[in-house]
Design goal:
Elements (H helix, E strand, L loop, with lengths): L10 H4 L15 E2 L1 E4 L3 H12 L4 E4 L15 E2 L7 H7 L2 H25 L6 E9 L2 H16 L4 E3 L11 E10 L2 H14 L3 E3 L4 E6 L3 E5 L2 E5 L2 E3 L14 E13 L8 E3 L7 E7 L2 E12 L7 H14 L2 E15 L5 E4 L7 E5 L5 H16 L6 H5 L10 H10 L8 E3 H8 L6 E6 L2 E7 L5 E4 L11 E3 L4 E3 L6 E3 L4 E3 L8 E5 L5
Parallel strand pairs: 1-11, 2-3, 2-12, 3-8, 5-14, 12-19, 20-28
Antiparallel strand pairs: 4-7, 5-7, 6-7, 9-10, 10-11, 13-16, 13-17, 14-15, 15-16, 18-19, 21-22, 22-23, 23-28, 24-25, 25-26, 26-27
Length: 511
């Protein structure tokens, strides 16, 4: 099993062993490209660039597939969360066609990588089914069908859907796929290293200084590159993109069925948030994977309840044998419906980013790999303007916003708080956490399995919002920009790059 960014274990991460990088790291080398992030975007991009003759280094803060790549449900689709109806409305019909074409090329890249490198990852091409259950949804589906076909994606109505759920109308879209994401990324990583690339795990970037070259500081040392790509799901530090990407969490379960009648294809209903369904055979065993109940990160007080609702939904429609796995994962929703892939806003030099994938990270990760290859090789592409992060206009008062948030932080370093009073005030059970107010200061508490009380500042180190306790994943999640911390206060996922400030707790006797 490999580690992940939460207490719940995904199907993919439980079935994988930790990846062991083969090539030695050399801090004296000036790399052509440094890629931050060892998920599907970072590794896909690294391989594409290494094959094109660039000398690349991947810096991963934890381990490969630690974050969202290990928590995805791995739908590979051109039927996107942001419908072609919406893309045409927000942009224009030409943009919708370019988005459809770029995602088709992304799926082709995945298919070609699997074939070229002999990657065993359960890849299977299939159809997708979007089904309506109300009259209002039918009307919306009609518009989606017309816009999808106009964008260049093959779609038609179908009387059949693979899942046993009542519906009134269904749209079938061909040319979709599914796979085991961890096995795919591991296959790419192996090919990348064989081509001469270097992967450094447990190397979190803490600073990047841009001059003629880019000096990258990490907790494992300093490295130099000619270009830097943040493939970290959301870029670290403070950037305009944080105001244009909203963090969301989605919930998933992998279950076994009594009758062994696992549905084919990818299926989606049309509620908001919607439910999504697919099956996958892994290590010789079939699973039905269902997801849904998305909400903004840090905005749901009882995240555990979303698993209960999801289980009830699955049992309503399927004859469940066992609930084998349950997990949640994070994604970032872009303001206008399309990802931001390209040059980082505010960095006119050689720093790039890919973020805002919504729920379509599997396909947009390969769009990013193709785009970054073109950018670094100075190739023209019609997709550059579609996904350009600099299409965002500066927000008035942004500097004041940062200053205001920075002023609210409470510094606890060097202070101590009484154990007995905190324990009585918080009334925590083992494994539970919460934010309490003590002497007019807010404190984030957690009681571990040994009934030991731990405390940290609840102020996110990114832009100083107050973190919220996630009782499903036992993490502290920032509702503003999506930074996540372990109960101990250590960073799980960015954009923060430093942990929550610790607070010492002592018993009154120790005083």
């Amino acid at each position: 099993m490999i580690n992940r960014d939460g207490a719940c274990v995904s199907l993919w991460q439980d079935s994988a062993q930790p990846y062991t990088p083969a090539n030695k790291l050399n801090s004296k080398t000036i790399y052509d490209v440094i890629i931050a992030g060892g998920g599907i975007t970072g590794i896909s991009t690294a391989l594409s660039l290494q094959k094109a003759g660039k000398n690349c280094l991947v810096l991963e803060a934890n381990t490969l597939c630690f974050g969202t790549t290990g928590g995805t449900t791995a739908h590979i689709n051109t039927l996107l969360d942001t419908s072609y109806t919406t893309i045409s409305k927000n942009f224009n019909k030409e943009t919708a066609k370019l988005v459809a074409q770029s995602t088709k090329e992304a799926i082709a890249l995945i298919r070609n990588n699997i074939k070229e490198y002999g990657i065993e990852c359960g890849f299977e091409e299939t159809d997708a089914y979007l089904f309506a259950q109300t009259e209002e949804q039918e009307k919306e589906l009609d518009k989606i069908k017309d816009a999808t076909i106009e964008a260049g994606v093959t779609a038609e109505y179908s009387a059949y859907i693979p899942v046993p759920i009542n519906h009134t109308k269904c749209l079938k879209v061909t040319g979709q796929a599914k796979f085991i994401p961890t096995q795919y990324v591991y296959g790419l990583a192996s090919a990348f290293e064989k081509a001469g690339g270097v992967i450094a795990e447990n190397s979190r970037i803490t600073n990047a200084e841009e001059n003629d070259t880019i000096k990258v500081e990490t907790n494992a040392g300093e490295f130099t590159g000619k270009a830097l790509i943040y493939a970290t799901h959301i870029p670290p530090t403070v950037n305009l993109l944080h105001l244009r990407c909203s963090p969301y969490r989605s919930y998933a379960m992998a279950v076994t069925l009594k009758a062994n009648n696992y549905p084919e294809g990818l299926c989606y209903d049309m509620f908001d948030p919607y439910h999504y369904y697919r099956s996958q055979k892994i290590n010789g065993k079939n699973y039905l994977i269902v997801g849904g109940y998305d909400h903004k990160t840090g905005h749901d007080e009882n995240t555990e309840n979303n698993f209960r609702k999801l289980e009830a939904h699955i049992r309503k429609h399927f004859d469940v044998d066992t609930i084998a796995y349950r997990w949640s994962s994070q994604y970032f929703e872009p303001a206008d419906g399309l990802p931001y892939i390209g040059q980082m806003p505010g960095h006119p030099g050689k720093i790039y980013t890919a973020t805002g994938y919504g729920g379509n990270g599997m396909v947009y990760s390969s769009v990013a790999a193709l785009l970054f290859k073109g950018i670094l090789l100075n190739e023209e592409s019609p997709y550059l303007r579609v996904y350009d992060p600099n299409r965002i206009k500066p927000v008035a008062g942004f500097v004041n916003f940062i200053k205001h948030n920075a002023d609210v932080v409470k510094h606890f370093v060097g202070k101590w708080l009484p154990h007995d009073e905190l324990d009585e005030t918080s009334a925590l059970a083992a494994g539970e956490g919460k934010v309490i107010k003590y002497n007019n200061q807010k404190i984030a508490l957690f009681k571990d399995e040994n009934n030991e009380l731990k405390a940290v500042s609840p102020i996110c180190t990114h832009l100083k919002c107050e973190v919220k306790w996630n009782n499903a994943e036992r993490s502290r999640d920032c509702p503003c920009h999506g930074a996540r911390y372990a109960a101990s206060g250590d960073v799980l996922t960015g954009p923060a790059n430093s942990g929550l400030e610790p607070i010492e707790i002592k018993s009154l006797i120790e005083k």
